[in-house]
Amino acid sequence: MGTGIGIDYDKVGLKAGLEIHQQLDTRTKLFCKCPTTLRDNKDSTYSFIRYLRASKSEIGEVDRAAREEESYSRTFLYKAYDSTCLVENDEEPPGELNPEAIDIALEVALMLNMKVVDEIHTMRKIVIDGSNTCGFQRTALVATDGRLTTEEGGVRIDSLCLEEDAAQKIETTGNMVVYSLDRLGIPLVEISTAPDIRTPEQARKVAEQIGMILRSTGKVKRGLGTIRQDINISIEGGARVEIKGVQNLRLISEIVKNEILRQRKLMELKDELNNRGARVEHRIEDLSSIFKDTESKVINRAGGKVFGACLRGFAGILGTELQPGRRFGTELADFATKYGTGLIHTDELPAYGIDEAEIARMRSVFNASESDCVVIVAVAERAQGEKALRAVLNRAEAAMRGIPEETRRALPNGSSAYMRPLPGAARMYPETDVPPVEIDAQRLKAISSRLPETFEHRVTRYKQQFGLNDELATKVSRSSNFNLFELIVERYRGKGVSPTLVARTLTDTTVELMREGVELENLTEQHLIDIFRLLAEHAFAKEAIPDIMRLIASEPELSVERAIEEIGLRVSIRDVERFIEDTVALKRDFILEKGERAVGPLMGIVMAKYRGKVDGKEINRLLKTKVEQILKGESDK
Ligand SMILES: [Zn+2]
Q1: Could you say which of 166, 326, 339, 551 would form a disulfide bridge with 330 (CB–CB 3.0 to 4.6 Å)?
Q2: How much distance in Å is there from the Cα of 226 to the middle of ligand 1?
Q3: Residue 637 Cα to ligand 1 middle (Å)
Q4: What gap in Å lies between CA 249 and CA 137, rounded to an integer?
Q5: How far is the CA of 614 from the centre of ligand 1 (A)?
């Protein structure tokens, strides 16, 4: 049973699915020979402009998302480089599907236990935000019907597609959206799960597992922006919503929780509005004269025109919080933002330099009572103001019917903002420029014979082979250091270095040091190997490992040997032996009297000198040997 923020997830009827987009680390793009690296420098070699129109589908309908996008009448400017070609510009047809990308997609599909299609067909999927120069994205279904297991239950993987990445949005100024073409055409795999996810935590775990599988191929791009998660969410009585662009795995469960909150709150608002008999008036009034001498910078800066409308019975509703940092008013404002303006409403006034007299005059235009809410937009032109307000009024009216299905954009704090309506189904058309690719059994066999070890398999192996506990086996398997872990264990396990210590050092100790602010990126794999080599040679005691790592991180030019000396840890095992011999000689009578029980008290003397510098076990071993020699020597006499 799921808990958290007081919500029982079994009762909200959560159904969530993930769509994961991962860039592949191929040499060239999906349909041309351009490189797949993003440019640091976005100074374009040349640029060009396109206007996109919502085209009718083959059955004569214009998609609702496409229609809305067209209403913004945007212009798109594309930055092209010497590292992009005419394919990205949509001036030359695409080439064949990149075989390197197909192989990686097949590898991932096999690791997800999916059924691979016999023939890969490239399709066109309409995109309406200008992120592709041709007005559609090319996508090719590679496999279907996979499955993952989590503690909360199984999750089906519906499909794996090979896709071209979109152009990267650089900025929006007024009606102009600027895109950079370096990212357009980088191969992606898109993995879609069925809506089988039942709790926010399960959503995070599924994303984590898929991420692990992708990384284990060693053939996917790493770093910010190279993997993007979209989440489909619906709850009982709510609506299906798609939240796009989650870049941080840790945010996934937050996003799901916050969407549940939003939908539940919207259901409450709907009942409240209907109980109040609320009503949206579609009469838009020009309020510019009220504000002609206003002190409000927001209004003056916008261009001097103000338009308003009245939401009857909505008082207090716009100020209601739906998600962290977002009120119902913010939700409405998203619609005004689409037309390049903000929204101001009486729930939040006085504010923005708008005074009581202006508020009173606004209210009087609409004959608004205390239970009503007046909304205004400040704009330069009437047409812009009317479009923005109409979108806001439609959204307010929809709140009285329920929750709209929509596509939303993930925000960094785990909330989300309106993006566009959910696109309708059937937006796919065959891409006739790209020939289909047959997948023969030979190719699949070759790929399946060299599949990397799965995460689950590695965890089990680490437990059996190295005696790690479940928690540690999971941690080290998941870390990027697992290869290093195996190498160190292989070399020094036979010399007394415990696999558990190596695993702890590479996971927990590393995390603790990073939290302290230690710059661990200065530490090379060779440093870590040397630390365990010297530990195996008893050059220091294991308790000193964090100190050695700390010192090397701050002075990376030091060798591990030098670091040990600097910390004053360098103790030759010969010195220790000598000290033990001296001690034993001095306490000879005591040893003869106590026999083997003398080892304990003598340990105290030796440890007082070498604690933290030499492993206690090692001292104990040496001491026992020397004591035994004395006892044996005596009995031989
Ligand atoms: Zn190209």
Answers
A1: 326
A2: 19
A3: 90
A4: 25
A5: 61
CA of 93 to the centre of ligand 1 (A): 10
Residue type, 72: Y
Residue 46 host element (H or E):
strand 46-50
Do 221 and 23 form a contact (C-beta atoms < 8 A)? Answer: yes
pLDDT averaged over every residue in the chain? 90
Inform me whether the pLDDT recorded for 423 exceeds 80: no
Sign of the torsion angle spanned by Cα atoms 605, 607, 610, 614: positive
Report the DSSP beta bridge partners of residue 29: none
Task: Please give the span between the terminal C-alpha atoms of the chain, in angstroms, as a whole number.
Answer: 74
Mind listing the pLDDT tens digit for each residue in 140-171? 999 999 999 888 889 999 999 999 999 999 99
| 90 Cα to the center of ligand 1, angstroms | 10
Cβ–Cβ under 8 Å, residues 613 and 541: yes
What are the structure tokens assigned to 57, written together? 């589908």
> What's residue 69's pLDDT?
66
Contact (CB, 8 A) for 206 and 154: no
* Cα–Cα separations (whole angstroms), residue 521 to 393, 525, 550: 53, 10, 11
pLDDT of residue 3: 37
Strands 227-234 and 241-246: antiparallel
The pocket of ion ligand 1, defined by CB under 5 A, consists of 32, 34, 85, 87-88
Query: Whole-model pTM?
Result: 0.74
Q: What is the mean pLDDT of residues 539-548?
A: 88
What is the edge-to-edge ordering of all strands in the sheet holding 75-80? 46-50, 75-80, 176-180, 168-173
Distance 88 CA to ligand 1 centre (A): 5
Helices of type H across 401-544: 441-449, 455-466, 470-478, 482-492, 499-504, 510-516, 525-536
Q: How far apart are CA 449 and CA 108, in angstroms?
A: 13
Distance 84 CA to ligand 1 centre (A): 5
Q: What is the dihedral of CA 535, 539, 540, 545, to 10 degrees?
A: -40
For ligand 1, the distance from its centroid to the CA atom of residue 86, given in whole angstroms, is 6
Between CA 306 and CA 388 the distance in angstroms is 12
Task: Using the mean position of ligand 1's atoms as its centre, give its distance from the Cα of residue 89 in Å.
Answer: 8
